[in-house]
């Protein structure tokens, strides 16, 4: 197989090579893609019915025998297609597309969700999340400011450019990419399925992994910037300091500072914040933190100048970041101690570190529409809504105290079993690794065994003793022991609820955004804030989708909503749109009620999902469908219109 030439096209591959390629396909997506060869979805069902089985080794619910039969059938059909010199595939009728969509996960998709599903499938590259704005309707000299050039900022720039709306993007960093530029710790990788984690308008199937690394992710976003000609629209090393709303002229006066410290002021009609939720590293409030005599840094600002070889290293924190980099650095260190305050739930994901084979990548390039159907398969199985139903609380539930429903308890049992199995009879380790809160209470961590394997190494310790203080030589734990270290790495997460800080935003009647929020950020649909006209957030309060899907889906929906607001303004000669206070309040009452019905809203759990008041200010407590629906088109009735 290693000698095979995977640069060949389908027309030129041998039978043997085709068989090998097909042996590595996702069967439901493969069968759906075969529909295009005959213009019908029926022939290629191979008598099977896939169904999504969460957390199973093979999530398609098929037996190995069924897969073999399906692939043999696919081989015959693709062989004939190849022998006929690969004519252009048929365009499927809407009915056939729908049928294939139902087939792929073995569930009847509710009729009302079909529009969202076919938008996501994006079979012929229609990009239905794009909102067209009539050329000529944009007022002269209208200008939008986008703050941040990460995933959301690039998305905003693409949409504004497509619509012909003048804009600037500013970013305080020296390079584009946001989180994918800043987080460079060893082992940093995406933990959403990568074939879902890309823009609908820039689909990418040639990812090197199922969950690729930070360099590949950054490279993707930079390629999108080049492809859409955005580089010149982005001012780097420019930090927005303040924005002041002028009621009379309906404009924002924005003050920013460049890398040389020079301040400048510009005027914009609208502002889109694309600052993200996870950009300000959080250091723990541990006594003596500054007294440590060795090297100390935060995982999100990795110190690549410090060589960990032969060093005694402490890692504080056991969230997604630590679980990604600890296995990468362990073998270099002389001693590695991981300080765990609470254990994360580990969600089995076998393919977490698996690279794509050349044959798999070949299939995405060469089997007509296979890549599209594979993305759709992931959306159905991991996205809509994946594990979400397992995280909803059940009324009067009186099962295990670290569970919130029967489903949640069943999930807990499965995860506990997986931990015990991996701990391999080390009861103390297993006990330390089993979280004391329900699954979904905090952000779970994907796991393919590397984490526990690393913790079992002789020079690695999982330290569950609470930290008392940090001293010059190391870390003192509550039992009085002093643990000596050369390096302390803080994997202690982000100030997630500090949306837009430290920017001073002054809206209508002189109200300041952070004073208004008082540490409790709230927005209508996570996008607009009363008192702050023509101001929009991407990935704002309560927009975090938590179920293993792609946050890009959420941001794309939000950006369509924002474009809808701009379109409404332009078409109706509206100078300013400001969301009504009552709509925002009612919406957030609903959010809070629903958050309390989720595992992460439980009063016994604390995490970055909650703000200092204990209110869940980060997560969206509903389904993808609800999110899609509520952000599809703005309702003018929600706004004060100037
Ligand atoms: P995190 O999930 O907030 O984890 C922070 C860790 O530090 C927790 O284990 C926390 O313990 C611990 N901690 C905080 N203060 C402490 C203290 N004073 N003493 C001891 N321990 C303390 O941070 P993260 O791992 O950086 O991840 C944050 C989020 O970023 C993730 O949930 C995810 O959404 C995102 N992320 C994504 C990826 C990706 O794959 N794409 C990778 C990394 C991060 P407690 O749990 O007890 O508070």
Automatic annotation (TrEMBL):
It comes from the Bacteria. The keyword Cell wall biogenesis/degradation does not apply. Gene3D superfamilies: FAD/NAD(P)-binding domain (3.50.50.60). The keyword Flavoprotein applies. Pfam families: FMO-like. SUPFAM superfamilies: FAD/NAD(P)-binding domain (SSF51905). Keywords: FAD, Flavoprotein, Oxidoreductase. PANTHER family: FAD_NAD(P)-BINDING DOMAIN-CONTAINING PROTEIN-RELATED, L-ORNITHINE N(5)-MONOOXYGENASE-RELATED. This is FAD-binding protein.
């Amino acid at each position: 197989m290693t000698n095979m030439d995977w640069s060949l096209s389908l027309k030129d591959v041998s039978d043997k090579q085709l068989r090998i390629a097909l042996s590595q396909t996702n069967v439901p997506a493969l069968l759906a893609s075969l529909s295009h060869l005959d213009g019908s979805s029926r022939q290629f069902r191979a008598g099977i019915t896939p169904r999504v089985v969460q957390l199973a080794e093979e999530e398609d619910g098929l037996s190995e025998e069924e897969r073999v039969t399906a692939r043999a059938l696919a081989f015959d059909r693709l062989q004939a297609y190849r022998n006929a010199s690969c004519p252009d595939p048929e365009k499927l009728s809407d009915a056939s597309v729908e049928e294939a969509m139902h087939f792929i996960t073995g569930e009847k998709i509710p009729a009302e969700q079909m529009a969202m599903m076919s938008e996501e499938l994006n079979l012929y590259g229609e990009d239905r999340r794009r909102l067209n704005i009539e050329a000529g309707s944009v007022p002269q000299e209208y200008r939008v400011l986008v703050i941040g050039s990460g995933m959301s900022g690039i998305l905003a720039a693409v949409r504004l450019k497509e619509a012909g709306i003048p804009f600037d993007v500013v970013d305080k960093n020296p390079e584009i990419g946001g989180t994918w530029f800043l987080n460079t710790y060893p082992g940093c990788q995406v933990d959403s399925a990568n074939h879902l984690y890309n823009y609908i308008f820039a689909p990418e199937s040639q990812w090197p992994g199922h969950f690729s690394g930070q360099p590949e992710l950054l490279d993707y976003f930079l390629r999108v910037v080049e492809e859409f000609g955005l580089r010149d629209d982005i001012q780097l090393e420019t930090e927005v300091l303040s924005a002041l709303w002028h009621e009379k002229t309906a404009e924002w006066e924005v003050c920013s500072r460049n890398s040389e410290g020079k301040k400048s002021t510009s005027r914009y009609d609208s502002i889109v914040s694309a600052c993200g939720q996870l950009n300000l590293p959080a250091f723990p409030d541990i006594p003596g933190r500054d007294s440590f005599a060795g090297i100390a840094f935060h995982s999100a600002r990795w110190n690549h100048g410090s060589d960990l070889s032969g060093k005694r290293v402490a890692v504080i924190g056991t969230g997604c970041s630590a679980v990604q980099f600890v296995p990468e650095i362990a073998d270099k260190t002389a001693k590695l101690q991981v300080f765990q305050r609470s254990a994360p739930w580990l969600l089995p994901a076998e393919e977490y570190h698996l690279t794509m084979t050349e044959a798999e990548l070949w299939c995405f390039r060469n089997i007509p529409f296979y890549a599209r159907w594979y993305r759709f398969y992931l959306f159905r199985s991991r996205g809509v809504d994946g594990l979400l139903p397992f995280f909803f609380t059940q009324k009067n539930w009186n099962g295990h105290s670290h569970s919130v429903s029967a489903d949640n308890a069943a999930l807990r049992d499965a995860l506990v079993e997986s931990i015990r199995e991996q701990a391999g009879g080390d009861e103390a380790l297993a006990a330390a690794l089993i979280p004391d809160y329900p699954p979904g209470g905090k952000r779970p961590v994907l796991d393919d065994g590397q984490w526990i394997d690393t913790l079992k190494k002789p020079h690695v310790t999982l330290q569950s003793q609470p930290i008392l203080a940090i001293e010059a030589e190391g870390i003192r734990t509550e039992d009085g022991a002093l643990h000596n270290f050369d390096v302390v790495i803080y994997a202690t997460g982000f100030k997630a609820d500090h949306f837009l800080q430290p920017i001073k935003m002054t809206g209508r009647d002189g109200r300041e955004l952070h004073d208004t929020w008082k540490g409790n950020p709230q927005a209508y649909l996570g996008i607009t804030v009363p008192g702050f006209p023509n101001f929009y957030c991407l990935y704002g309060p309560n927009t975090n989708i938590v179920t293993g899907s792609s946050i890009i889906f959420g941001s794309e929906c939000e950006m369509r909503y924002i474009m809808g607001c701009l379109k409404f303004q332009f078409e109706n000669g509206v100078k300013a749109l400001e969301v009504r206070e009552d709509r925002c309040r009612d919406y957030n009452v609903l959010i809070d009620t629903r958050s309390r019905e989720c595992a992460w809203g439980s009063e016994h759990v604390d995490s970055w999902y909650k703000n200092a008041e204990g209110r869940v200010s980060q997560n969206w407590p509903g389904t993808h469908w609800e999110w899609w629906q509520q952000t599809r088109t703005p309702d003018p009735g929600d706004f004060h219109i100037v």
